[in-house]
């Protein structure tokens, strides 16, 4: 078997195992609740009849392992049960919002990845210059800013003061791509600002790390231009750490989206999750968690494989 | 770190040190500085800046300046307690795993691997939806999440120390596990752990204020920087920057801590530009 293919299978199996462990955790976290979910939700004053009916409805009268298998089996088929708050099918509830969240994350990624990589390269190339220092301070600051701070500043200027973009990123179902891109520009820009800083710093660090290597010294001594040294000699070897950072930040986008969605009232998975936590609609939170965790693992898996594919040395590890 | 080290610090680190000191002073002396009480309603809702209320009043008619001061005190205190709890648990278990090895190490490490695979914010949301929101739950949930990260670092650092001859000598002397962890390993693993404390504090501070901003963290009427942003968010659509102030207070502190940690790490790694 081709080594890359074998590696893919191994990683895929490992990813599935992790996802399985997480699903077990998501499910079992409820079991650790002192007492019972029913008491927590219905309160102390509920009559025994209501409690019994509620328990039957949730299937709480069955043993935990049967409920887990039932839940997992359903989740694999896209059936997450019904919401406690409004009795709707969770699968239906999630489907539309999941698409919106993916759209927003992809929008932000499409801008931030190229931007971060080129800024990182430039900062490494002009290391120690005023440009590098400025970028360093600016990115360190924006990493430490809470997302909602960035979001409200953008909202204040771009939407309230200058009226360029709408402050509520809600688009109807029939909107075309241009309208969608326009209406979601502010949340996307917030995410771009937040993740670009991190990716850029790591890109710069990865390249600068390599610049201390003897073969870079060699390339310099034989008279290669600084741009050539970085692009042809340093970059290929820096690819695998950079890919890892990009994947890590894309995974971060998926969760960072929660706060941005709340600020801009965007109808995505994150907002649904926050609403459900406030209402203690646990089945919805579990389902959303499982989906987020799945994407997170998938992204890490993709990063691992890409890093191996771009660095043949990792394939023949002794 | 000596006084001369601090004198040679770059301006960013200086800025950070001064700001952190100011925050600590405000947090400690909040009852003396704040013109009004934490939950005292002093006027109408959303009064403009100026007069008796330099930054106006909030959505319930409480003085914004006082709320900012009390909020700084509460947010800092809760974040500090959480970080301390996370370090206590994470570092103890990390050292224990390194000293004991074997199945204890295996079980703890695999458990932490699994918990780290879940993104922190999601993990917090899941646990808060199950156990309910409130300060105690919030502190425990965030501390558990951060403890997994501290465990990783503590175990990795301690693993390097465990193989040293003096640890072996102490073992042969018949010292107990507690002694090995406290007297032999901890002093030699302290430096990276202390630098990590600053960074972890930032994460905790940001996580708690993010959850409070979402309405799932510190509950009213307790003043807290994150929930202050949420309470006054409506003002932003009228071009009023009051809701940005608590957010800016959070950002300023985390930026300052990052500046200082950046400088300390830079110095410790011996890198000179």
Automatic annotation (TrEMBL), chain A:
<keyword id="KW-0472">Membrane</keyword>
<dbReference type="Pfam" id="PF00528">
    <property type="entry name" value="BPD_transp_1"/>
</dbReference>
<feature type="transmembrane region" description="Helical">
    <location>
        <begin position="102"/>
        <end position="125"/>
    </location>
</feature>
<protein>
    <submittedName>
        <fullName>ABC transporter permease</fullName>
    </submittedName>
</protein>
<dbReference type="InterPro" id="IPR035906">
    <property type="entry name" value="MetI-like_sf"/>
</dbReference>
<feature type="transmembrane region" description="Helical">
    <location>
        <begin position="180"/>
        <end position="200"/>
    </location>
</feature>
<dbReference type="InterPro" id="IPR000515">
    <property type="entry name" value="MetI-like"/>
</dbReference>
<feature type="transmembrane region" description="Helical">
    <location>
        <begin position="284"/>
        <end position="309"/>
    </location>
</feature>
<feature type="transmembrane region" description="Helical">
    <location>
        <begin position="242"/>
        <end position="264"/>
    </location>
</feature>
<keyword id="KW-0813">Transport</keyword>
<dbReference type="Pfam" id="PF19300">
    <property type="entry name" value="BPD_transp_1_N"/>
</dbReference>
<keyword id="KW-0812">Transmembrane</keyword>
<keyword id="KW-1133">Transmembrane helix</keyword>
<feature type="domain" description="ABC transmembrane type-1">
    <location>
        <begin position="98"/>
        <end position="303"/>
    </location>
</feature>
<dbReference type="GO" id="GO:0005886">
    <property type="term" value="C:plasma membrane"/>
</dbReference>
<dbReference type="GO" id="GO:0071916">
    <property type="term" value="F:dipeptide transmembrane transporter activity"/>
</dbReference>
<feature type="transmembrane region" description="Helical">
    <location>
        <begin position="12"/>
        <end position="30"/>
    </location>
</feature>
<dbReference type="InterPro" id="IPR045621">
    <property type="entry name" value="BPD_transp_1_N"/>
</dbReference>
<feature type="transmembrane region" description="Helical">
    <location>
        <begin position="137"/>
        <end position="160"/>
    </location>
</feature>
<keyword id="KW-1003">Cell membrane</keyword>
<comment type="similarity">
    <text>Belongs to the binding-protein-dependent transport system permease family.</text>
</comment>
UniProtKB/TrEMBL annotation, chain B:
<dbReference type="Pfam" id="PF00528">
    <property type="entry name" value="BPD_transp_1"/>
</dbReference>
<feature type="transmembrane region" description="Helical">
    <location>
        <begin position="12"/>
        <end position="34"/>
    </location>
</feature>
<dbReference type="InterPro" id="IPR025966">
    <property type="entry name" value="OppC_N"/>
</dbReference>
<dbReference type="GO" id="GO:0005886">
    <property type="term" value="C:plasma membrane"/>
</dbReference>
<keyword id="KW-0472">Membrane</keyword>
<keyword id="KW-1133">Transmembrane helix</keyword>
<feature type="transmembrane region" description="Helical">
    <location>
        <begin position="116"/>
        <end position="145"/>
    </location>
</feature>
<feature type="domain" description="ABC transmembrane type-1">
    <location>
        <begin position="72"/>
        <end position="265"/>
    </location>
</feature>
<dbReference type="InterPro" id="IPR050366">
    <property type="entry name" value="BP-dependent_transpt_permease"/>
</dbReference>
<feature type="transmembrane region" description="Helical">
    <location>
        <begin position="244"/>
        <end position="265"/>
    </location>
</feature>
<dbReference type="InterPro" id="IPR035906">
    <property type="entry name" value="MetI-like_sf"/>
</dbReference>
<dbReference type="Pfam" id="PF12911">
    <property type="entry name" value="OppC_N"/>
</dbReference>
<feature type="transmembrane region" description="Helical">
    <location>
        <begin position="76"/>
        <end position="104"/>
    </location>
</feature>
<dbReference type="InterPro" id="IPR000515">
    <property type="entry name" value="MetI-like"/>
</dbReference>
<comment type="similarity">
    <text>Belongs to the binding-protein-dependent transport system permease family.</text>
</comment>
<keyword id="KW-1003">Cell membrane</keyword>
<feature type="transmembrane region" description="Helical">
    <location>
        <begin position="197"/>
        <end position="218"/>
    </location>
</feature>
<keyword id="KW-0813">Transport</keyword>
<protein>
    <submittedName>
        <fullName>ABC transporter permease</fullName>
    </submittedName>
</protein>
<dbReference type="GO" id="GO:0055085">
    <property type="term" value="P:transmembrane transport"/>
</dbReference>
<keyword id="KW-0812">Transmembrane</keyword>
């Amino acid at each position: 078997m081709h080594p890359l293919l074998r590696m893919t299978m191994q990683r895929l199996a490992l990813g599935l195992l992790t996802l399985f462990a997480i699903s077990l955790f998501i499910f079992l976290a409820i079991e650790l609740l002192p007492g019972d979910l029913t008491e927590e939700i219905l309160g102390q004053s509920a009559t025994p009849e209501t409690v019994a009916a509620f328990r039957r409805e949730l299937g709480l009268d069955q043993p935990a392992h049967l409920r887990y298998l039932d839940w997992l089996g359903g989740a694999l088929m896209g059936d997450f049960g019904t919401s406690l708050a409004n009795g709707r099918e969770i699968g239906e509830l999630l489907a539309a919002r999941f698409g919106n969240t993916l759209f927003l994350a992809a929008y932000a990624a499409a801008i931030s990845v190229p931007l971060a990589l080129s800024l990182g390269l430039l900062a490494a190339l002009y290391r120690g210059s005023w440009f590098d220092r400025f970028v360093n301070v600016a990115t360190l600051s924006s990493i430490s800013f809470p997302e909602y701070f960035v979001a409200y500043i953008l909202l204040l200027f771009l939407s309230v003061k200058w009226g360029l973009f709408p402050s509520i990123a809600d688009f109807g179902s029939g909107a075309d791509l241009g309208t969608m891109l326009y209406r979601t520009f502010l949340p996307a820009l917030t995410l771009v600002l937040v993740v670009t800083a991190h990716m850029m710093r790591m890109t710069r660090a990865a390249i600068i790390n390599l610049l201390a290597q003897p073969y870079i010294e060699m390339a310099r001594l034989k008279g290669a231009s600084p741009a050539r040294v970085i692009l042809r000699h340093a970059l290929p070897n820096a690819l695998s750490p950079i890919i890892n950072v990009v994947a890590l930040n894309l995974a971060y986008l998926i969760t960072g989206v929660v706060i941005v969605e709340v600020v801009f009232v965007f109808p995505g998975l994150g907002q649904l999750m926050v609403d459900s936590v406030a209402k203690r609609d646990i089945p919805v939170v579990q389902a959303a968690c499982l989906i987020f965790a799945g994407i997170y693992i998938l992204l890490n898996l993709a990063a691992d494989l890409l890093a191996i594919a771009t660095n043949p040395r990792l394939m023949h590890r002794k | 770190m000596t006084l001369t080290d601090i004198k040679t610090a770059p301006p960013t680190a200086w800025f950070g040190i001064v700001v952190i000191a100011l925050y600590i002073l405000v947090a400690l002396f909040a009852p003396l500085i704040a013109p009004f009480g934490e939950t005292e309603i002093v006027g109408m809702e959303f009064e403009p800046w100026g007069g008796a209320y330099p930054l106006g009043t909030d959505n319930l008619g409480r003085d914004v300046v006082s709320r900012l001061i009390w909020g700084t005190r509460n947010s800092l205190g809760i974040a500090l307690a959480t970080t301390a709890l996370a370090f206590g648990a994470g570092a103890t278990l990390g050292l224990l795993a390194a000293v004991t090895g074997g199945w204890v190490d295996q079980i703890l490490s695999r458990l932490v691997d699994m918990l780290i695979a879940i993104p922190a914010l999601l993990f917090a949301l899941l646990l808060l939806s199950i156990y309910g929101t409130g300060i105690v739950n919030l502190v425990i949930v965030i501390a558990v999440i951060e403890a997994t990260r501290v465990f990783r670092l503590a175990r990795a650092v301690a693993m390097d120390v465990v193989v040293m001859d003096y640890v072996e000598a102490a073992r042969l002397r018949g010292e107990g596990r507690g002694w090995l962890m406290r007297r032999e390993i901890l002093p030699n693993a302290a430096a990276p752990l202390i630098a990590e404390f600053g960074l972890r504090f930032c994460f905790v501070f940001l996580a708690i204020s993010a959850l409070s901003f979402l309405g799932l963290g510190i509950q009213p009427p307790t003043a807290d920087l994150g929930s202050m942003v949420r309470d006054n968010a409506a003002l932003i659509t009228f071009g009023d920057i009051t809701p940005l102030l608590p957010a800016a207070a959070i950002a300023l502190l985390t930026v300052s801590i990052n500046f200082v940690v950046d400088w300390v790490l830079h110095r410790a790694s011996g890198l000179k530009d």
